[in-house]
Amino acid sequence: MIVRISGEGQYRLSDDDAGRLNELENAVVAVVEGGREDEYADAFGAVLDYVRSRGQVVPDDDLEGSDVIIPPADMSFEEAGREFTGEGLIPD
User: Fold this and answer.
1) Cα–Cα–Cα angle for 82, 69, 84, nearest 5°?
2) What's phi and psi for 56, nearest 5 deg?
3) Which pTM value belongs to this model?
4) 22: Cα separation from own chain's centroid
């Protein structure tokens, strides 16, 4: 699975990582939908950290389509309210 973090690059994750990434992303959806702004940075940071730590960087000259696009790391809570809703970025 290829995951892009907007403004940063692409990472290749194994299919085994998809379930955990989905769990982390669902936690962000719950935080955003619950209006819990004080928990947002940690929840979104966990998604970004997981991709960065588990994924292998895809070289810039390797033209691969992204399976999932994660918003940039500096996305605000208000912006997250438009992105992390319902099924979120990664459909179950």
Assistant:
1) 25
2) -100, 130
3) 0.89
4) 9
